[in-house]
Design the sequence.
């Protein structure tokens, strides 16, 4: 069947899609953070990033409960801290900055889906936390855009450049 | 100083790109110039193909009954009073590329109120907010892949892409499949809107039949006497999924 075309997330998703604790997939593990930049090197303050990952054992069967809600008043009450949902969602702040707290995925990378005003169709990329055969298949300069840099123990930096000299490698799954 | 960009300039650019093929499968090309915000926000390098059958993206996040409440799909019941505007129901099915229903997955919507105003600080144009309307809803698809929302018809609103730019009325939709590769964020439009030809966001889908897939159908059998008007809109998710996930979700 012919797919429904994509349209931009626009500037006004902020009261609909982000949720409290969206960037806290799991606590007590690692922190991954970074900035989103446009082709002029300016931070993008209205991007929305989604993350999907395996748990520490490489299990990709995500569990429900990322958006767990209070049946009394409908408020988001957060993950239950037991089930690993594997899903995170973080809007960039006014500085274009985002922060994710999670555990190191067993398969070595965190999948990222990027939405933004001005982006008519989302983009996929990956945050690699170590070596991987797929990285080896890329030219060195481009490869570096997919690897998070460890700033200090447990804190990893990953910037996303939508365009320009440091343009991030974006992925196509066909 | 350059002249301000007007509708005639945008119309000309849209006409040049109409039927240009756009992106794959009818999706918009990310470098669609008439929508000016794309200029610095699209990659110029080609995407890198991933053919790995073990790719994490062939699976995806799951949602369940704890992630929604029963009232979340009725945007007219979120405040003490009733919102102003034309009450509508919007329903349809979420399918994958093979036509199979996408079951038990999260559908999220957001929209402007009947006056065309979003409950967002960055929307400051002089149209009234409605104290009885937020404009956010969510639900899970049922076993047929069906979703259903009760809301009010959103208004058109101005934006600053060019002088006198107006968006046709639309509802934003966010959809998940069984695989992260199937993720879709899009907009549903209402049939017969006179603003269609002027809007560079809708026209970024340069193929006419693909563009029609973004327009809901008025469905009289879904209208309820003395209550609401009905619209039907089916959604087909693009992207591959892991085959082993087909059972059990």
Sequence:
């Amino acid at each position: 069947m012919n797919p429904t075309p994509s349209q931009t997330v626009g500037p006004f998703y902020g009261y609909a899609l982000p949720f409290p604790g969206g960037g806290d997939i799991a606590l007590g593990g690692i922190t991954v953070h970074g900035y989103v930049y446009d082709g002029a090197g300016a931070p993008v303050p209205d991007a929305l990033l989604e993350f999907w990952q395996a748990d520490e054992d490489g299990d990709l069967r995500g569990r429900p409960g990322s958006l767990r809600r209070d049946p009394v008043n409908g408020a988001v009450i957060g993950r239950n801290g037991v089930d690993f949902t594997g899903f995170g969602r973080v809007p960039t702040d006014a500085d274009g900055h985002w922060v994710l707290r999670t555990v190191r995925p067993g398969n070595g990378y965190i999948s990222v889906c990027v939405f933004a005003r001005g982006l008519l169709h989302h983009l996929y990329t990956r945050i690699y936390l170590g070596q991987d055969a797929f990285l080896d298949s890329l030219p060195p300069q481009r490869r570096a855009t997919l690897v998070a840099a460890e700033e200090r123990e447990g804190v990893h930096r990953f910037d996303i450049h939508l365009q320009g000299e440091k343009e991030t490698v974006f992925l196509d799954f066909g | 100083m350059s002249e301000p960009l007007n509708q005639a300039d945008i119309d000309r650019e849209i006409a040049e790109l109409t039927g240009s093929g756009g992106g794959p499968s009818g999706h918009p090309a990310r470098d669609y110039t008439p929508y000016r915000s794309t200029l610095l926000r699209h990659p110029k390098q080609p995407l890198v193909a991933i053919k790995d059958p073990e790719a994490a993206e062939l699976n995806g996040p799951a949602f369940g009954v704890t992630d929604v409440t029963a009232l979340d799909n009725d945007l007219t019941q979120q405040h003490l009073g009733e919102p102003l505007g034309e009450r509508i129901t919007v329903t349809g099915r979420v399918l994958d590329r093979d036509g199979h229903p996408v079951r038990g997955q999260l559908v999220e919507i957001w929209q402007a109120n009947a006056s065309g105003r979003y409950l967002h600080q960055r929307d400051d144009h002089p149209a009234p907010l409605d104290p009885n309307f937020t404009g956010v809803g969510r639900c899970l698809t049922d076993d047929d892949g069906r979703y259903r929302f009760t809301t009010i018809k959103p208004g058109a609103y101005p934006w600053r892409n060019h002088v006198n730019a107006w968006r046709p009325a639309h509802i934003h939709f966010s959809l998940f499949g069984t695989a992260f590769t199937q993720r879709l964020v899009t907009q549903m439009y209402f049939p017969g809107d006179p603003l269609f030809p002027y809007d560079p966001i809708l026209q970024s889908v340069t193929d006419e039949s693909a563009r029609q897939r973004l327009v809901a159908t008025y469905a009289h059998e879904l209208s309820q006497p003395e209550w609401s008007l009905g619209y039907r809109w089916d959604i087909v998710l693009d992207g591959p999924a892991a085959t082993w996930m087909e059972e059990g979700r």
Observations:
- Chain B has one domain: 7-44+68-240.
- Residues 102 and 145 of chain B are 5 Å apart (CA to CA).
- The first helix of chain B runs from residue 7 to 17.
